[in-house]
């Protein structure tokens, strides 16, 4: 049997900017069939930005593919901006985008932080969501953040963890998220750049089943690493601006929405426990664990399963 591959490269047929606040404009684009099934691609991070490759997971003849860059990242403006950048803002932006594009309801597709934001949007606007295809579940619970940024993943990738913490003075390592936040928001550009590069390299280096050596180089102000690290840390130090365990506490709101959950067995960034817990509580959800996979969407088993599930929508 021939393995299914990503769909061919396509260009957006429509794109633009949507002013969503006093200072923020978000970039959006549409590709594929304008009369096709509406599917919104929600990128990770927060702060990661969407990518052209994401649209290749969908048959362009069947789907109207909508992508956007969340506040402060990708092509959205201003870049790496933390002001007026909260989870409520992002959920409101998605709804403003839906209304702007004159879409009644849509399918959601998101991984990692994209799964978090998809779940929160669905809780806030359940009537607008037809289905969810989620990957690498992240519920932003305290133990999840501690596991990846403080202690846990450190024992699986000790060499990468050593590089990660090397930019933080030894006497400031008891709460690494807080210490990184101090340097990522520092007016000292050199300190900010080092912290951004270390944070980003740590996450990218641990995202695959088979370890990859990643070096983002020296981060610069307004570079990918700068926005990725600053916005992630900004959200995490503020507990994503929601009450603890918000998603699980409000799960009944979305129990009628068909949901597929794809999870790498050896996902170190977002451990399988979160996908397991979500599936146990969320009626009408199905959990598919890919044994030979880590966190990345590009892991072979995850890619194949995503393509298969999306085709069945």
Can you walk me through this structure?
The chain has 313 residues and is α/β, with parallel strands linked by helices. Helices cover 35% and strands 16% of the residues. The protein is built from 10 helices and 8 strands. It has an 8-stranded mixed β-sheet with strand order 1-2-4-3-5-6-7-8, with helices on both faces. Helix 4 runs antiparallel to helix 6 (189-205), helix 5 (176-184) packs across helix 7 and helix 6 crosses helix 7. The radius of gyration is 19 Å and the shape is globular.
Question: How would you describe this structure in keywords?
Answer:
8-stranded mixed beta sheet; alpha/beta; 2 domains; single chain; 313 residues
Topology:
Elements: E1 14-19, E2 25-32, E3 37-42, E4 63-68, H1 87-100, E5 106-111, H2 113-124, E6 129-135, H3 142-149, H4 158-165, H5 176-184, H6 189-205, H7 224-237, H8 246-249, E7 259-264, H9 272-281, E8 285-290, H10 300-311
Parallel strand pairs: 3-4, 3-5, 5-6, 6-7, 7-8
Antiparallel strand pairs: 1-2, 2-4
Per the CATH scheme, the topology name of the largest domain is Rossmann fold
The number of helices is: 10
Order of helices and strands: EEEEHEHEHHHHHHEHEH
Label the structural class.
Answer: alpha/beta
CATH superfamily of the largest domain: Alpha/Beta hydrolase fold, catalytic domain
Percent helix range: 25-40%
Oligomer: single chain
Largest sheet, strands/sense/barrel: 8 strands, mixed
Q: How much of the residues is beta strand, in percent?
A: 15-25%
Q: Give the overall shape.
A: globular
What's the CATH first level of the largest domain? Alpha Beta
User: How many strands in all?
Assistant: 8
Q: What's the N-to-C terminus distance?
A: 22 Å
CATH-derived architecture of the largest domain: 3-Layer(aba) Sandwich
Q: How many structural domains are formed by the residues?
A: 2
- Radius of gyration, in Å, reads 19 Å
If you average the pLDDT, what whole number results?
Answer: 96
Low-confidence stretches: none
């Amino acid at each position: 049997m021939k393995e299914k591959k990503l769909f061919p490269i396509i260009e957006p047929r429509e794109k633009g900017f949507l002013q969503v606040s006093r200072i923020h404009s978000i970039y959006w684009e549409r590709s594929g069939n304008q009369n096709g099934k509406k599917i919104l691609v929600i990128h990770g991070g927060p702060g990661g930005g969407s990518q052209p490759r994401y649209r290749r997971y969908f048959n362009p003849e069947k789907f109207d593919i909508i992508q956007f860059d969340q506040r402060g990242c990708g092509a959205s403006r201003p870049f790496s901006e933390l002001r007026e950048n909260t989870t409520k803002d992002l959920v409101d932006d998605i709804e403003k985008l839906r209304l702007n594009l004159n879409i009644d309801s849509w399918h959601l597709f998101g991984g990692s932080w994209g799964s978090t934001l998809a779940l929160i949007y669905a809780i806030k606007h359940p009537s607008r969501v037809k289905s969810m295809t989620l990957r690498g579940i992240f519920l932003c619970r305290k133990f999840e953040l501690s596991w990846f940024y403080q202690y846990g993943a450190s024992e699986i990738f000790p060499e990468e963890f050593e590089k990660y913490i090397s930019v933080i003075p030894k006497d400031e390592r008891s709460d690494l998220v807080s210490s990184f936040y101090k340097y990522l928001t520092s007016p000292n550009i050199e300190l900010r750049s080092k912290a951004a590069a270390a944070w980003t390299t740590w996450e990218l280096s641990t995202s695959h089943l088979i370890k990859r050596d990643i070096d983002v180089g020296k981060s610069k102000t307004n570079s990918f690493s700068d926005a990725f690290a600053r916005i992630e840390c900004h959200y995490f130090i503020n507990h994503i601006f929601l009450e603890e365990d918000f998603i699980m506490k409000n799960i009944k709101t979305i129990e009628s929405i068909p949901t597929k959950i794809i999870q790498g067995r050896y996902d170190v960034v977002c451990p399988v426990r979160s996908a397991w817990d979500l599936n146990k509580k969320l009626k009408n959800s199905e959990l598919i664990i890919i044994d030979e996979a880590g966190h990345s969407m590009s892991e072979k088993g995850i890619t194949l399963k995503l393509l298969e599930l999306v085709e069945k929508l």
